[in-house]
Design brief:
The chain has 8 helices and 16 strands. It is α+β, with helices and mostly antiparallel strands. The strands form 3 sheets. Strands 1, 2, 3, 4, 5, 6 and 7 form a 7-stranded mixed β-sheet that branches. Strands 14-13-12-15-16 form a 5-stranded antiparallel β-sheet. Strands 8-11-9-10 form a 4-stranded antiparallel β-sheet, with helices on one face. Strand 15 and strand 16 form a beta hairpin. The relative contact order is 0.15.
């Protein structure tokens, strides 16, 4: 059965055909004869009870510099399509939250992946706090005194914004680093949002493992090795992906959080593990499936579409 699929994402021009998970999902959908449309978050509208997008028919191909074709713009009633892939990258700001409210109006009659209500209720760093036994010592606060007390206790810390992505704004403060006050001034002049502060995990030098879960089950993993002189392992920040397998501790982490992901309709998720500790749960636009396929042949895009197609029967 051919499905009508609208993809809410960033501009196609910016897509890397070798690394972008959304491109792989679109390519797999197209191979299954599903029809694709592309639109950006700013193209979403709500009027008279109807959610629409200024969308364009999309064709993808694995050709550098010629990886997509877009048709003419049309007003697409999203209640009339089968699936919306909610794949825009963070920052998880008020614009992002507003879009989840709009998409909530069509889900689940139109299947939105991931469920917009649960994406809104599971910000990637805050969702982590539902599993205190799995995460390293962590503080979420905008109180400079609380942050300084946490640092005095743990000495070596990581400071990061709650709603960023790709390693942007992440700082490693060693015990003798004198920049904490300046960093707090900078963050809180730009935003009223609290920060997340975690005990630094030296195991990160051996890698920050990304594990992909589909319907709450782990289906593949890769390790990301930080570049020399950088505490961040994100591939956007220069981290090097290498093959990886799950340890018993990581299997336990997946078994603990997997049922929660499945019950919330978070079909595709990516978790980050450093040493024995869960450090993030990514439910907006997790990456890594193309690298995993190159390492071991696991076709995670197909597993995602198997999960989507199993839900494609629309309620009467």
């Amino acid at each position: 059965m051919s499905l009508a699929v609208a993809v809410q994402m960033d501009p196609m021009e910016s897509v890397s055909i070798d690394g972008d998970t959304t491109f792989a999902l679109a390519e797999c959908a197209q191979s299954r004869a599903h029809r694709l449309w592309h639109y950006q978050p700013r193209d979403l509208s709500f009027r008279d009870g109807v959610v629409t997008a200024r969308a364009r028919a999309l064709t993808v191909r694995r050709e550098r510099g010629n990886h997509f074709t877009l048709g003419p713009a049309e007003t697409l009633d999203l209640s009339a399509v089968d699936v919306v892939l909610l794949r825009q990258d963070p920052p998880f700001d008020m614009s992002y939250i507003t879009n989840t409210h709009l998409l909530e109006k069509i889900h689940p009659r139109t299947l939105v992946v991931n469920d917009p209500v649960e994406v809104r209720n599971a910000p990637e760093k805050l969702f982590l706090t539902r599993f205190p036994g799995l995460m390293p010592p962590t503080l979420v606060s905008a109180d400079p005194d609380a942050i300084r007390a946490f640092r005095a206790e743990h000495r070596d810390i990581i400071l990061k914004p709650l709603y960023g992505n790709g390693g942007a704004g992440v700082f490693h403060l060693k015990p003798d680093d004198e920049n904490l006050g300046s960093l707090l001034d900078m963050f809180f002049q730009q935003s009223r949002e609290p920060l997340m502060i975690q005990r630094y995990l030296p195991e990160v030098r051996k890698g920050d493992k990304r594990i992909i879960l589909v319907d709450g089950k782990p289906v593949g993993a890769l390790n990301r090795i930080p570049a020399d002189g950088d505490a961040r392992s994100n591939m956007h920040a220069g981290g090097k992906p290498v093959p990886a397998e799950l340890t018993p501790r990581e299997e336990y982490i997946c078994a603990t959080i997997g049922p929660e992901l499945k019950s919330r309709g978070l079909i595709l998720a990516g978790i980050d593990v450093i040493g024995d500790w869960l450090t993030e749960i990514n439910v907006t636009s997790p990456t890594g499936i193309q690298e995993i396929r190159r390492f071991d042949g696991t076709d995670i895009a197909s597993l995602v579409w198997d999960a989507i197609e199993s839900r494609r029967i629309r309620p009467a």
